[in-house]
Design goal:
Elements lengths: L1 E6 L8 H12 L6 E6 L10 H14 L4 E4 L6 H11 L3 E4 L4 H9 L6 H4 L7 H16 L2 E4 L2 H8 L9 E3 L14 H4 L5 E5 L8 H8 L6 E5 L5 H11 L4 E5 L3 H9 L3 E4 L8 H9 L3 E4 L4 H4 L7 E3 L4 H13 L1 H14 L5 H13 L3
Parallel strand pairs: 1-2, 1-3, 3-4, 4-5, 5-6, 7-8, 7-10, 8-9, 10-11, 11-12
């Protein structure tokens, strides 16, 4: 069997899709599935629309040799891949790790709704409605939709005319064995060392992490990632927590993992998560973690057993949780051991076996 993977990101790009496609590219051939990868990064330098047209022809050309096309998002690569699959009469599988229309609405079109509110919203900007239509059409065009959490299955089930029976949950596998080098500036920071990682966008709520750490004596904070909110966050840190916060920018995956290993506490303060790769990686590394009880996070963390759950947008609760972990060595040790044990269900073998089984059943 030969699968063409259409991916928006590819290493050294940061992000879950880049990690995921590299995992499939390396592991599926050993399970009897040949893989071809068509990278959207090759056309990103072109103007919008033109880049998608060129990408369509790239998928169309490579797809002639494939038994199945797997698109790793429902819009940027999903739309060209869906059109190519229809033209070639090849089955299409789409992986959905979030709601693209909602994310673009938050970043570009002034939306303030949470994802759950967005799912039932009646009044939305035209551009967002258009993106909703695209992702719903692509999802309906697929013979199967893969999501990495039960939460995202519920989200995608609200898309227009998408049947829940067409959606399969396959948890991602994490590659926490990579070894790199954390930046020297990270290693120079004092303990307790708190780390938060992610795109610097509003729903990651990094400002809440900065506010939570500012009054914790002796603590330092490392923020790994880049994005449109970076300048605002750096200004906030300089004003309220001078000298306590280090922004590393985006790091290669191995350096990100090493920075995570050097953390005393990992914080994920998002108002939305489909299923966080980084939270799984923190669990597999045994880093005591605090996460908001949103999206797929409660599928990963059981409060008080393998991590701590807090309410989103509750800085006081986050501060209290950080102080609790710093003060309680027994709790940190227990959470660390349980975290490692709980991450076993995200093994490479489990994901590859489930993915191969699904893909081979469709051709």
């Amino acid at each position: 069997m030969r699968v063409l993977i259409a991916t928006p990101l590819y290493p050294p790009d940061p992000g879950g899709p880049a990690t995921y496609v590299r995992t499939l590219e390396e592991a599926l051939p050993g399970a009897g599935v040949d893989v071809m990868v068509v990278k959207f990064g090759l056309v990103r330098r072109f103007p919008k629309l033109l880049r998608h047209l060129i990408y369509f022809f790239m998928v169309l050309r490579s797809g002639k040799e494939a038994d199945l096309i797997l698109a790793l998002d429902p819009v940027s690569v999903g739309l060209p891949a869906a059109l190519a699959a229809r033209f070639l009469k090849k089955p299409l599988v789409v992986k959905v790790v979030g709601d693209y229309a909602w994310e673009q609405g938050r970043q570009r079109f002034g939306l303030t709704d949470t994802l759950d509110q967005f799912a039932t919203a009646r009044s939305l900007p035209f551009e967002v409605r258009f993106l909703q239509g695209v992702e719903s059409w692509v999802a309906r065009s697929a013979v199967r939709i893969i999501v990495p959490s039960e939460y995202l299955k519920r989200v995608v089930s609200t898309w227009k005319d998408v049947e829940p029976a067409s959606i399969s949950v396959i948890y991602n596998a994490m590659r926490s064995e990579e070894t790199g080098r954390a930046p020297d500036a990270v290693l120079a920071l004092p303990h307790p060392r708190i780390v938060s990682i992610g795109r610097l966008v509003p729903w990651k709520q990094m400002e809440g992490v900065i506010e939570a750490v500012k009054d914790i004596e002796g603590a330092s904070l490392v923020i790994v990632g880049d994005g449109p909110s970076r300048a605002r966050l750096e200004q906030l840190a300089a004003e309220v927590a001078p000298g306590k916060v280090l922004f590393t920018g985006a790091l290669p995956h191995d350096a990100t993992l090493t920075t995570l290993r050097e953390a005393d506490i990992f914080v994920l303060n998002s108002t939305y998560e489909g299923l966080s790769h980084l939270l799984i990686e923190a669990l597999s590394l045994g880093v005591p973690s605090i996460a908001t009880a949103v999206g797929g996070n409660p599928e990963l963390v059981t409060d008080g057993e393998n991590g701590l759950l807090i309410e989103s947008r509750d800085t006081e609760m986050l501060t209290a949780a950080i102080r609790r972990l710093i003060a309680d060595d027994v709790l940190r040790t227990r959470l660390s051991g349980n975290a490692r044990a709980s991450s076993a269900r995200f093994s490479m073998d489990a994901m590859i076996t489930a993915t191969k089984s699904l893909l081979t059943s469709l051709v």
